[in-house]
Amino acid sequence: MMTMIAACLAVGLIAGFLAGLLGVGGGLVIVPALLAVFHLAGILPEHQQHLALGTSLATIMFTGIASVRAHHAKGAVRWDIVRQITPGIIAGTFIGAQIAGLISTRGLQWIFVVFAYVVAAQMLLDLKPKPSRQLPARSGMLSVGGVIGVLSSWVGIGGGSLSVPFLSACNVPVKTAIGTSSAIGVPIALAGAAGYIASGWGIASLPNYSLGYVYIPALLGIVLASFPMAKVGAAVAHRLPVPTLKKCFAALLIILASKMLWSLW
Fold it and tell me: Domain of life, per the record (predicted)?
């Protein structure tokens, strides 16, 4: 147990920093790392992916709050956007988590692999949508929030990989898009964690100290490290250009996704 918590602390340091720096929530690192930890801990394979996703979303609740506070202090959060998109986010994420409970571990891993490769390609090639339009009306924001919520619940992220490009395409400055994305990630994490707790509730074969599909020891280990590091990442985001760090993160994603892909074959 102590070895697992130590591993989760190390994961939390990296995930927290990335959450504050890039507005990506850290889940793209947390999920494959937890899969490795759960495998070593002997958790049943059919529960590993669901536990990794639920636990990842639960950690983002805490990481996101720290990141939001830091970005808000810099004036980089558009709270009007957060208010408009949050209802769709909550509905989409909760429903997505319920659907995920019906998808096999292998199916969820394929979704994660494809998503990780797409995000890595976007970062490596520095693909940015042209800022050619304004934010949609309230109904459009609800729909966008629903889509972001569903996809985020299936890959265990705070939605930054989707919301930052969307906001940038709508002429929101990049640093403001990152700060606003960190705020959007909090309701995603809340609704997603609640959904995974509900979908995993009462399953007898889950490990001890699980709350549905949220594994409490891993949650605590990651949060202890990621909460303070999110503040550090947010501070760096407002001081330094991040293209090089994005490329390093993309390389890490490719390695993690390729390892998961190899295991699927």
Answer: Bacteria
